[in-house]
Amino acid sequence: MDGGSPSFVDWLVARLYEAGTRRLFGVPGGGTSLDLIDAATRQGMQMVLTAREDAAVIMAGVSGVLAEAPGLAFATKGPGLASAANGLASASLDRLPVLLVAETFGPGELDYVSHQAYDQAGLAAPLLQNGARDVLAADAEAVEAWLGNGPVPLRAPAVMFPTADALRAPQKPGARATPPPASPLLDESHLISARRMLEASRHPVVIIGLEAARPALEPLLRRLVEQLNAPALATYMASGAMPIDHPNYAGIFTGGAIEQACVNAADLIVLVGLDPVELIRKPWTYAAPALDLCEVARQPHYLQPETRVLGPLAEALNALSAEEQPLVTQGIWTADQIAAHRQRFHEGLDIDAEDGLSSRTVVENVATAFEGRPRLAVDAGAHMFSACAFWPACRARDILISNGLATMGFAIPAALAAALHDPGRGAVAMTGDGGALMCLGELKTAAETDANICIVVFNDGRLSLIDIKRQERQMPDLGLSWERPDFAAAARGFGFAAWRAETASELAQACADAAEQAGPRLIDARIDPSGYLTQMKSLRG
């Protein structure tokens, strides 16, 4: 040490702890990751040993989102970093604020070692939002610059490759980023234009995106929607920011077909925190002008707004719909019209099972038994349509989903992170059997942490979302199915309470029993996938 200065690793974990980080996740190597774990546990952080590195990055990122703090993950060099790659891609495209600290080669090692050696920074940089700029140097200035780079929930993920010497070197604190002014200044001319557009509109529609999925913004969003008396749609990642039981809630917005009747009726489309990464790859077809309220101007975008108010959403929403100066609107939407759009959305996703359980039946049974209390984490797959449509999301981040990367293997790690973040509330993971097979090792993590998590496997013995795309193309069987595994038996082997449900009565009983317990649980629900094709056509067109 130099004059009592802490080592860099001690300074780093203390600084992250000060910023709100309480856990670190990963699979260690035998080098610097051990130094990081030692320093973090001495600081008071909980170390969560995961089965895979990609799951660790997802868990850390979701923890960061929920705590509105930096997430922290670690991995070893070589195969560890390569395994973490999908987690990094998820963190980047799903906007998860995580720092991955990966082991690397020391000075001179690469002169004579080829074992596990490749361009590690070169692998990580393309997966990060800002490329090589988010590969941080092991020094305080780089860390402070990253910590000060924008609102915590929107901070880009970063990677650091510290050597042993860098971690153990004495570290003096770096200069902290200048805090934003108490009332950030928005462009006054853009605010004036935005208010004119809002007050002149007769049929506005509000679309809420992931930037707005923060608890502090919920009352401001409701106030804007209520002053406009407009239908409000939310993206998957913003589910709950406008409660589904609110009379102005009109459904989910994906850029697909099911919301077109509602949005086509608009004379103004108000985007609040919509990130283009959330939308499916289809052209923007709406003719109405758009007002874009956002904190990050993402490019490319699906549309060019007539007016964009760029800056903190809280400031923009307060400026446009303040209680002391409410909007004087011309809106003529009726409650019956908005309710009809909401009903059209739900009816479009309603499916019946020909033989067995439908995905909607499973979602509604779980939601009823658990009374909507836990957070829900959803995997990519055909089951996500019902999960996001019929789960009673009433608060921001009630639903956690990878909609930027849309990766399988997200739900179980995300639910684990949510359950550790808020043990009393707990979490439900809804995953297809393909996603569950990718994450079986994390059942160990759930058991070791005694996480208050219930995993629901939509077990149909196939990659259903891909198979329905095959059906659309009228292609023959391409080997996308398999014999259904017994996930309940596997879960019991990890110490879970587990149930297998093939009928409606078995499902209802399993859900009731699971809701009465805490700790790791799993329900293996045997699903009939026959309605998925109709459901996807209704949703996406």
| Backbone shape | globular
CATH class of the largest domain: Alpha Beta
How would you name the CATH homologous superfamily of the largest domain?
Thiamin diphosphate (ThDP)-binding fold, Pyr/PP domains
As a whole number of angstroms, the C-alpha radius of gyration is 24 Å
Uncertain runs with pLDDT below 50, 5 residues or more? none
CATH architecture of the largest domain: 3-Layer(aba) Sandwich
**Largest sheet, spatial ordering of strands:** 2-1-3-4-6-5
Major sheet, described briefly?
6 strands, parallel
Number of strands: 18
Number of domains: 3
Relative helix content: 25-40%
* Termini separation: 63 Å
Strand content: 5-15%
Structural class, by secondary structure, is: alpha/beta
Number of separate helices = 21
Calculate the mean pLDDT score and round it: 91
- Looking at the structure, the CATH topology of the largest domain is Rossmann fold
Please characterize this protein's 3D structure:
The chain has 541 residues and is of the alpha/beta class. The chain has 3 domains: 8-168, Rossmann fold; 188-344, 3-Layer(aba) Sandwich (Rossmann fold), CATH 3.40.50.1220; 349-540, Thiamin diphosphate (ThDP)-binding fold, Pyr/PP domains (Rossmann fold). The protein has helices spanning 8-18, 32-43, 53-67, 79-93, 120-124, 140-147, 164-168, 188-200, 218-228, 260-264, 313-320, 335-348, 359-370, 383-390, 411-421, 433-438, 442-449, 464-472, 487-493, 504-515, 532-540, and strands at 23-27, 46-49, 71-75, 98-102, 135-136, 158-160, 204-208, 232-234, 249-252, 268-272, 290-294, 307-310, 375-378, 399-401, 427-432, 453-459, 497-501, 521-526. The strands form 3 sheets. A 6-stranded parallel β-sheet has the order 2-1-3-4-6-5, sandwiched between helices. Strands 9-8-7-10-11-12 form a 6-stranded parallel β-sheet. Helix 4 links the parallel strand 3 and strand 4. Helix 3 runs parallel beside helix 4 (79-93), helix 13 (359-370) packs parallel to helix 20 (504-515) and helix 15 runs parallel beside helix 17 (442-449). The N and C termini lie far apart (63 Å). The model has no long low-confidence stretch (mean pLDDT 91).
